[in-house]
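Could you please consider the sequence and fold following this short note?
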Amino acid sequence: MKDTPLSNCERDFLLKAIEEKKRLDGRQTYDYRKIKISFGTDYGCCFVDLGQTRVMAQVSCELVAPKENRPNEGIMFFNIELSPMASPGFEQGRQSELSVKLNRQLERCLRNSKCIDTESLCVVSGEKVWQIRVDVHTLNNDGNLMDAASIAAITALCHFRRPDVSTQGQEVTVYSPEERDPIPLSIYHMPISVSFAFFQQGTYLLVDPCEREERVMDGLLVIAMNKHREICSIQSSGGIMLLKEQVMRCSKIAGVKVSEITELISEALLNDRKARKAGGKCGFAESMPQERITALKKDETPVEMTDVTETANGIIQKGEAAPQTVPSPVVPVPGVGQVGQGLQNSWGLEDDDEDNYEEEKNDNSGDEQVEEVTKMDVGEGDVVEISDSEEEEVVILNPEVPEKLKNTGSKSHQKGAAASKKRQKK
């Protein structure tokens, strides 16, 4: 694990503040940071915020073979993962000394204290038992990970529900939550750890140390206790020598803190149970800030359906009259459309009209009575064409030719005629 070095100035400042009974966040010597407990959507998922320290615990279960020396008891497994997301000092894929120490402390606190009835996890003696796995993930590290992990683990175990099972001979049937309601675990008591940091060889004592206070402390004492003031585990680290009076004073302080935390856990579980039963917001949806996510949120609009017919008739009467339809334009020739003010654009013909036109064209081609096209000279340069089409008369005006061009044209024409006659004689 790569620790960020702490400067001498910061170390001296922290120790001087502790001597004056002052802390960086304004707490007193025996004050805990604010604890917030929230649950996920599924059973067994718990989030715990201890100040800026954030931890998530997830409980899962599966049917496995029991241990040979304990064939009638279930199996408890704990795992703490220190993610680099929580602190830059944590490395991915490498098990550090801190993670090993936290795993051992959590196992002593929960498994060795017999807080859970493991015999109730037996399904078939010697063949099938439930294995309960508790995975604790650190989301943010600001000191005192052990207390946050113990609170999250025991709260997740209390919130967890395992599937119901039935046995018929050697056959085991596991029911889904839709078929049968899940069953909670049998928990006798809730052990919670409380950490005490000692400074200057035990001269000064602080409860719930933060991350910077942990760097300058000389020793750490962790006491796991339940609300009945029964000590489940106790561990001292740092190599300092503590007096009997100091340990007794820490145990009394731990008893008070554990009672307060236990009430907070019970209240959080009760509120979640009521919210799930009432069908309201629970779990992760409850912890979301209001009016933040609006993409899938829409206000309901009441609609009155009693007088729908009357309302519709009133709307029709008040509405404007429909526009008059415009007759379709006349298409004199295929492929020609008439466009004008108040007329629709009808370029081309429909498929049926084209087919009719082709048939008429074929019939007219076979008819022998066809009018002849005649040309009549009207005047100089004017010609009138008369055909069997339905179009109006078309007058074609030829361009006027100057007299000089006419004379030159007549002379060239005479020379051409004389040359042709000579060729015929030869």
